[in-house]
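quick q for whoever's on today - can somebody do inverse folding on this one?? i tried earlier but teh output was garbage lol. tokens:
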């Protein structure tokens, strides 16, 4: 077993986008790279935690020393997270698709000559962060993200209450944060808001892991 301040702790981390299939060859996705979530999983492992990373489709390698489970859809991500419980820590960094196509076509949708473009009927995906925050086996520290383009901190405070998580890491994604290497975080907890300077995603991960270790004593 690893030494370190998080030795003996189990951390669950989500990362990356989800892919929501339309038909066997098409899907709906988003621009999440998984860089921040993967860096957090690696940082927690470096502090001695046993880490389960539930990763959507990303091009990143699996972080060393981390058990990585690969999923595609939001529903698969939720199932993998629930199966990974119990955990002491949950960090939900994935950019989960809010909606999926209500009925996935079993055959490729065909473009018939002269026919109109199809309409997609969408269905709501489960909210993984909210589900884990209110779970019977809720981890003692549940952390979510809030990517906002305006009123970043106000929205994050409201989101923390709505989701039922302990901390929210809020960041302004109006620039090129998604896919980029740097991040500027506002950490929202029950005792207020901390503004972190802009730093590399790896540094955000290390700082968060250290905060988690301090919080869990
Ligand atoms: O509601 P919003 O997507 O802005 O919330 C972002 C936070 O919620 C992130 O921590 C994200 O991982 C999590 N989330 C989730 N499942 C969803 C939507 C968001 O876990 N379906």
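ok took a stab at it. sequence:
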């Amino acid at each position: 077993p690893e030494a370190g301040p998080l030795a003996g702790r189990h951390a669950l981390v989500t990362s990356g986008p989800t892919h929501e299939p339309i038909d066997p060859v098409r899907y709906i996705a988003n621009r999440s790279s998984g860089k921040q979530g993967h860096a957090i999983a690696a940082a927690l492992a470096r502090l001695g935690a046993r880490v389960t990373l539930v990763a959507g489709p990303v091009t990143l390698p699996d972080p060393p020393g981390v058990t990585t489970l690969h999923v595609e859809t939001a529903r698969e991500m939720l199932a993998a997270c629930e199966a990974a419980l119990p955990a002491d820590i949950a960090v939900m960094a994935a950019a989960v698709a809010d909606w999926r196509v209500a009925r996935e076509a079993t055959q490729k949708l065909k473009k018939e000559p002269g026919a109109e473009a199809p309409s997609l009927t969408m269905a709501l995906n489960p909210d993984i962060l909210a589900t884990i925050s209110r779970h019977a086996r809720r981890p003692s520290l549940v952390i979510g993200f809030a990517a906002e383009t305006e009123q970043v901190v106000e929205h994050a405070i409201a989101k923390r209450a709505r989701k039922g998580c302990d901390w929210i890491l809020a960041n302004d994604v109006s620039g090129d944060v998604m896919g980029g290497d740097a991040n500027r975080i506002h950490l929202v907890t029950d005792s207020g808001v901390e503004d972190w300077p802009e730093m590399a995603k790896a540094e955000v991960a290390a700082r968060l892991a250290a905060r988690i270790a301090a919080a869990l004593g």
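fwiw Residues 88 and 139 are 5 Å apart (CA to CA). also The chain has a mean pLDDT of 95. so keep that in mind when u check it
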